[in-house]
Amino acid sequence: MEKRNLLIINPTGLHARPATQLVALSRKYQADITIECEGITVNPKNIFSVLKGKMKQGKTISIDADGTDSEEAVNAICSFIQALEE
Question: Distances in Å between the alpha carbon of 10 and those of 29, 55, 85?
Fold first, then answer.
């Protein structure tokens, strides 16, 4: 099991386009992945779930993964979110 906390610094947060990219990235991994933001837990492999999370600039999220590729999944998701610039 892998877990990491991350502060969202992108001014527009995870709106529709980066949310779609996050879903595509997350689906590459077999691990069960969840992202929690202020008490809302979302499945990053489902676009509607991600949009429900309201992940905006200045919020801290917790990324959890469990499975054979969990460390790789968490690293990739963190890198993706940290690199967002829009």
Answer: 24, 10, 6
Residue among 4, 15, 56, 59 flagged as catalytic: 15
d(CA 27, CA 43): 10
Per-residue model confidence as pLDDT tens digits over 25-55: 999 999 999 999 999 999 999 999 999 999 9
pLDDT in tens, 62-72: 999 999 999 99
Q: Is 15 a catalytic residue?
A: yes
Q: What is the CATH number of domain 2-83?
A: 3.30.1340.10
* All structural domains of the chain with their residue ranges: 2-83
Give residues with Cβ within 8 angstroms of 24, minimum separation 6.
Answer: none
Contact 75, 3 (CB under 8 A): no
22 within 8 A of 78, measured Cβ to Cβ: no
